[in-house]
Amino acid sequence: MTERTLRFNTPADDVDTVQDFLEALWEEHDDVAALDRMAFETAIAELAANVIQHADGGSGVTCVLTVDIEADGLRATLKDTAEAGGFALRTVEMPDVLAEDGRGIALIQALVDDLAYDRVDGVNRWTISRRRISAV
Q1: What is the pLDDT along the chain (136 residues), one digit of tens a residue?
Q2: How far apart are CA 85 and CA 5, in angstroms?
Q3: 40 φ/ψ angles, rounded to the nearest 5 degrees
Q4: Cis (ω within 30 of 0) for the bond into 11?
Q5: Distance, CA of 22 to CA of 16 (rounded, Å)
Q6: Residue 76 contacts residue 66 (beta carbons within 8 Å)
Q7: Which residues contact 6 (CB under 8 A, 6 or more apart)?
Q8: What residues does 32 pair with on adjacent strands?
Q9: pTM for this one?
Q10: Residue 124's beta-bridge partner residues?
Q11: Contacts 24+ apart (CB under 8 A), 7-12
Q12: What values do phi and psi take at 7, rounded to 5?
């Protein structure tokens, strides 16, 4: 098992910071199949982008991303200091083709096996997990 953590702050840091972190992690784990890497990384990047875009209200937010790579699965937890989301996660369908937004949560759910959200001690906690479909 490998666990790595990235702490980042917006503004200044952005989704590129998250993708650079993941790129370095994949270099350590060439045993993770390309399809698993692509799906998991896309889900994490979408989640981070949503937090950065919708949660900071312009005042900035601190995030801690922890990624665990295990023999049978991938797991990420993203904690952020933004205000509470004020919603309950449920299975979301993709919006109409012409819709300009609303795809983020649906996309994440399509790419991973589980997406969870809760708020603990004033911190938002997002958790995603994906079973590994194969090894390289």
Answers
A1: 899 999 999 888 889 999 999 999 999 999 999 999 999 999 999 999 888 877 666 678 999 999 999 999 999 999 999 887 665 555 555 545 444 455 678 889 989 999 999 999 989 999 999 999 865 4
A2: 23
A3: -65, -45
A4: yes
A5: 10
A6: yes
A7: 17, 18, 21, 64, 65, 66
A8: 135
A9: 0.85
A10: 80, 119
A11: 7/62, 7/63, 7/64, 7/65, 8/62, 8/63, 8/65, 9/60, 9/61, 9/62, 9/63, 10/52, 10/56, 10/60, 10/61, 10/63, 11/56, 11/60
A12: -110, 130
- Which amino acid, one-letter code, is at 103? R
Q: Name residues whose C-beta falls within 8 Å of residue 56's C-beta, 6 or more positions apart in sequence.
A: 10, 11, 82
Tell me the C-alpha distance between 45 and 22, whole Å.
9
For residue 124, the one-letter residue type is: N
Q: Which amino acid is at 20?
A: D
CA 53 to chain centroid: 13
Identify the residue whose tokens are 């990047």: 45
Instruction: Report the DSSP pairing between strands 73-80 and 123-131.
Output: antiparallel
